[in-house]
Write a structure and sequence with these properties.
Elements (H helix, E strand, L loop, with lengths): L1 E9 L5 H12 L3 E5 L2 E7 L23 E9 L3 H8 L3 E3 L3 E4 L11 E4 L12 H11 L7 E5 L5 H8 L4 E6 L2 H13 L5 E5 L10 E7 L2 H14 E13 L3 H10 L3 E8 L2 E7 L1
Parallel strand pairs: 6-7, 8-9, 8-11, 9-10, 11-12
Antiparallel strand pairs: 1-3, 1-4, 2-3, 5-6, 12-14, 13-14
Length: 278
């Protein structure tokens, strides 16, 4: 059996990479890598109908400035694991965290180790936004106890939260395979304070957190901001990412309208993360 590698070029990344991941998941793609120019997606050749690719929303958008195209290539199935291992490099967040896969040599670890099986490589720390989120979390001298990790992906932020002092973590994702991967990775890191649920923002209503972590995209963040704010305890912290540095002022205005105070911005290349306080 052969695997299909779909290579998508996007002139505008956010929010199109997230939209593509959702749509491609419905077509049968099961693994994704966000790149500097777009997205790589993988599936078993027999699981997809390639003729459906041209119907994806990004290839039929009339948004000015958005360019998108794709190519498809075959990968022999027996080379699949080797391909992932070759592509998955250790991630070092300064000298504080090392994100590795189970097949990496643990002697390279500097700071806290987080072990992530690279089945879904977005959310592992390779992307600038995840890197900034982990950096922001490590700046707390006393990490908050009750945590919401919204859009958990592989669970890396939830795992880090427990390792640095959180006592209860609710990790939510709309994708079932992300929730499964989060549970697997939590067990791999011997974490037992993480509850991973499949669903959306409605799962948060009525709950209270000391810190909310949301690494999603600008449009989703804006639509969910009021729930983040209302679910935060007084003095609680919100850290968001998944957007460009040019979006920071707009999100600061949304935060202010929801009663949150701007604390700090983090930058990495063209991406940003912002910390607020209630």
């Amino acid at each position: 059996m052969e695997r299909i590698q779909l290579n998508v070029y996007l002139s505008v990344l956010a929010p199109w990479t997230d939209i593509l991941i959702a749509e491609l998941s419905e077509l049968g793609f099961d693994s994704f890598v966000e790149t500097e120019t777009g997205l790589e997606a993988y599936a078993n050749e027999t699981d997809i109908n390639q003729s459906e690719l041209s119907n994806l929303s990004v290839f039929n958008s009339s948004i000015e400035g958005l360019e998108a195209n794709y190519t498809v290539e075959k990968i022999p199935f027996q080379n699949w694991n080797a391909l992932w291992e070759a592509d998955f490099k250790p991630v070092f967040v300064e000298d504080k965290i090392t994100i590795i896969a189970p097949f990496h040599d643990s002697s390279i670890v500097v700071g806290l180790p987080i072990i992530i099986q690279p089945q879904m490589s977005f959310g592992t720390g390779h992307h600038q936004t995840t890197w900034m989120m982990t950096k922001a979390m490590m700046e707390f001298s006393d990490f908050p106890k009750r945590v919401l990790d919204m859009g958990t992906g592989t669970g890396v932020l939830a795992i880090l939260a427990e390792k640095i002092g959180a006592e209860s973590i609710l990790a939510i994702d709309i994708e079932p395979w992300s929730v499964e991967n989060t549970i697997e990775n939590a067990n791999r890191n011997k974490c037992n304070a993480i509850e991973a649920l499949c669903g959306d923002i409605d799962l948060v209503v009525g709950k209270e957190f000391d810190i909310v972590l949301a690494n999603i995209n600008k449009n989703v963040l804006k639509s969910q901001f009021s729930t983040y704010a209302s679910s935060l305890a007084s003095g609680g912290t919100l850290i968001i990412s998944g957007f460009f540095d040019t979006d920071v002022e707009e999100l600061k205005e949304v935060a202010s309208a929801n009663g949150l105070k701007f604390i700090k911005v983090f930058n990495k290349e063209t991406w940003a993360a912002v910390q607020f306080e209630k």
